[in-house]
Amino acid sequence: MREREPMLNSSTIAEPSTAAYGAKNQLQPADEPIHGWYRFILGYPPHLVREYLHRLNADAERDWVCDPFCGTATTPVEARLQGFPTISSDSNPVALLATRVKMAWDIDVAAVLRCLDDVLELAIACLRRVGLQPIPDGHHQLDLFTPLLSKGTAIADQHLAEQFHPDELLPSSVATLIPKGWISPNPLMRVLAIRFAIEQAVADDRIHDFMRLALAHVIVTKAGNIGFGPEIYCRPPRDDADVIGAFVNTVERMLADIQHLQTTRPLPFPPAYMYQDDARSLSRLDHCPPIGIVITSPPYPNEKDYTRSTRLESVLLGLIQTKHELRALKANLLRSNSRNVFAGDSDDIYIKDIPAIVRIAEEVEERRLALGKTSGFERLYHRVVRLYFGGMYRHLAALFPKLRPGARCAYVVGDQMSFFRVHIRTAHLLADVAHRVGYDVEGIELWRTRRATVTRQDLAEHVLILRKPTTNRS
After folding, report:
1. Contacts (Cβ under 8 Å, ≥6 apart) of 234
2. What pLDDT score does 390 carry?
3. What is the pTM of this model?
4. What is residue 140's predicted lDDT score, i.e. its pLDDT?
């Protein structure tokens, strides 16, 4: 095996201030259309995608752009806006929902509006059946109040509303999947009424998904008692919320974005494929065209349960309905935290011969013993480190044959100190892993720094640049 090539130096651009680093990762106002429909707080911004399409010399006539950890579709949406065909995958069902909807640029706007009227009629009839007015007291909006008051009175809607049984939509066994206090009773009832109306009144799958994503946005931003800082946390409870009004506004805003896109973008739109898949195997991508560019951000090795960040909307939309389904979702995720480590996991075998990773795992365990930490989760920290980088080895190995020769990849990853404050230099360790798989490591570039939640220290977030060689290594 040839010697590892030296890495490029980190960016030589002058170091920005802390405030500038924070702004660097924010969604810019011009990028709100489509991207702003539903986003993960920890996602990178569209302008990063634009920057790295340019830096990686991407060519829309040649390159398919892939994001194998697509989240809320920042890379596929922005790459497609720039004229690139895209391939996306994620294990999380709410991420796949967001990607499908955000890429459905040819949806029939008039048909969505007709369905919206039907959904409102039925949802309001359902609310009246359980003793709630369509708009809570004190939440009246002049542009919506009068039209909504007249809805939900048709005999057919009232008859169908009799089938609205909130306890069947959200049985107590399912409700326990939602942490206590994350949503109050009245907003919950309003969300369930809209969900029931969508399921009963919308037959078209794409319109059904479109409205479910709008409802997901409302659940997170209006109905729930949750916030992100960046960890998800419970806010003081709200007695009620104008869920119907927020839902209407969200659907109409989404449709306005689609109308603008349909009238300003040339046809046909670039092709876009999306799959639900375990990023460690990427089996659903076997028959896709060769990939030329990858821009993505896998989970980082820390104690963040990524399923928790989307738990509220996933359960209320019916995407996760049992503990078994939640467990199955975690089983298909990269092992990045102790909450999704399973007894039979063996990804660590792939990195047992990479000394830097083994040393970090050993340091984590030595620190645990020195501190006298004995909880079950803490005992798993050193194992998480091994499983995480072993899982990333599997991912990079699965991706490698799907890349065209000369393909280039940008992985956005952050340093971590979640495990007893042992510093994990994620990008540098992944560079070792990638080199073992067969990639050329072209560089590690500083994207920004961010303040660690527990230690209050600034940690680097890097972009690791990889390239598939054009010839086999000797």
Report:
1. 179, 181, 182, 225, 226, 227
2. 98
3. 0.92
4. 57
